[in-house]
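I'm curious: can you give me some protein's one-letter sequence along with its backbone structure tokens because I've never seen that pairing?
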Amino acid sequence: MKVLVVSDSHGHHDLLRKAIGQEAPIDMLIHAGDVEGDLVKILGPKREYSIHAVDGNMDWGDLGDTDVFDMGGHKVFLAHGHRYNVHFTMANLRKAAEECGADVAIFGHTHMPFLEEQNDILILNPGSVAKPRQVGLKKTYAVINIDDKTGEMKVRIKSLRGMSGWR
């Protein structure tokens, strides 16, 4: 199973589509908020992959603040992060993931990639495909590959080819 994880596209739908195109084919798209638009309308109704998404602090949709779902045998807790104080600590996000029995917590909001395992929970922020804030200002996303037989998960933070800095 191949999963594309993006966040904080902030209305730059061309960059979101570019990340999808760079990684196609995918089985699942996860968007951790601040889309600033309707994902179904942006991506079109005909897709070969499922979508999981939440609203960020810049979204006014009806996706909700959190989502919990299965991803190839792993339980995922998805939140934008602004309600969990992620600029300062992962403790609140990790606790929310623990409370729902998730082994993966995905968030956005900081616009900076983050990948760390804490208390048997993989915590992932793919960064931003539109407005990065980390050193080097690379527009980033994450790819999760899950072995269908073993459930082993491999995660990579990747950059949009030919893209850096703010647009």
Remarks:
- Helices lie at 13-23, 39-43, 91-99.
- The first helix runs from residue 13 to 23.
- The chain has one domain: 2-164.
- The two ends are 32 Å apart (CA to CA).
